[in-house]
Queue: 2 jobs
Job 1
Amino acid sequence: MTTSYDCTSEEARADGIEHAQRAISEKKCIVMPTDTVYGIAADAFSPQAVTMLLVSKGRSRQMPPPVLIPRLGALDGLATEVSDEARKLAETFWPGGLTLIFHAQPSLDWDLGETRGTVALRMPDDEIALELLNRTGPLAVSSANRTGQTAARTAAEAQEQLAESVEVYLEGGLRPVDGEEGVPSTIVDATALPLRVVREGAVSLEQLRQLVPGVLALGEVAPEPMPEAEEVPPPPEEPEEAAPEDVASEGPEPEAEKTQPGNAPSSGPAAG
């Protein structure tokens, strides 16, 4: 049976969070507000629950949901090979509208769909969402609408599309709270360097580049690395030219002293 809670009331909010936590533990789906739009959530570590989420949205396993986390410290438990550049973005824009794609920790026992060994992580900037996440741990969350339809900005709008496929609806009022049109999170691929924007959203490219100047824009191709220059062998050494004075001093060797007549040397023994 589907139940909706008006979380603008403290008492109803407490009851709703408790019921939502119980539904998550029972592998069921719930709808909750986030800082961007409303999301349908399920236990990230339950293949059954994630399958129910995808079926509720009419979505295939080729479009796995991102995972929302309650605190920055959960990052290293779920992702591996986190670069300094990606960590800097997370520290600056979490909680907020930035989703980062990482290599998933290989030891984790979960099945979010065809992720190819990656996981998309985000920490939402929403009190109700964070309160629930702190109780349940990481949740697989996607926008609370049928695939191809408009994202829900209230729990009531989500219920019109998802109906009985969801156990609990947490109504927190309009999202975003300022009443502006809902903007999805920016998604950045952080599985390799340079970082690359794969979906534009709440955090602009200019904001990203203020921290990490090398972030590639959507569709931008990384420049080809410059080929290493080949070492050119030095030219052969030319023989040194003789100094002018050396040339002047050189000449034909002196001839042997000519023998004068009558001075021929004796070829026999001396007279006694």
Note: DSSP finds eight helices and eleven strands in the chain.
Job 2
Amino acid sequence: MPDKPHPLLPNWFVHLRVLNDNSKEIIYFAMFIEIIQMRPKLATVIRDYTIITFGLLLFVLGWQLFLIPAEITGGGVSGISAVVFFATKIPVSITFLIINAILVLIAIKILGASFGVKTIYSIAVLTVFFAVFQNILEKPLVDDTFLSAVLGGMAGGIGLGVVFSRGGSTGGTDIFAMIIMKYRNVSPGKIIMLCDVVIIASSYFVFQSPEKLVYGYVSMWVVSYSLDSFLSGANRSAQMFIFSTKYEEIADFITQEAVRGVTVFDGVGWYTKENIKIVMSIVRKKETSAIFRKIKEIDPDAFISMGSVMGVYGQGFEKLKL
């Protein structure tokens, strides 16, 4: 009866009997094969966390370079931490860590362990970034308070968009946004905006200044707009109507090369009274350039109409959530 194969050996390798099954050469080679097979997944994980880290850095820089030096309060747990800092001088990093340590448990339970891992990582990195950049500036980077609110909001919104795009979260109100986005097609920026109104309003009790309150809401709006623009920009779709006598070649290119669905309609040109075929397809906007180049190559005289689509749901696009 043959010896039981080593558990590290791939299935296809068990059939090799050139060397003894327990030899170090086979074990090392099998381990090497397993590592090679894991590389794509490992590379994806590393890429995700690298991008998340970059987004977190943008988020923190928006606070530490623009908002906090100008004494502007934003939303989320970061906003609460900023209010506490303005009132008591307790470092933002400490308050941020304590509050999120509780909230992250909710994220793990509802959104799953993978979300929780990325959130814990984000909270840890943000805590470090807030601590490192705490006193990077004593005075605002720009003298204009309104400009500080806009620039800080833009950096924060884009940073959140980068983190959200990789399935992460910075904690706080972001957790609620991610939970609702899982079950409803609701703008994450609007969810965060509603939650942050109360947080920013609380800064009035610290500064007793309506002006600071207004700047806080300006920053909140910019964060919301930047976040929505970033997230929707990567997934924007376009509906194309193509009128051409070489419709078959164009339709074949879209289905085989662009890998998008095509519907061909019968039409009549009312001026010429001639029958014509109309190719209709919905594609990502980033894919339209390649399609335009190919259409120009196939039929330079083709007539094309393209319009932006608010939402596309189904195979190849977004899942329908009710």
Note: Confidence is low (pLDDT under 50) at residues 5-19.
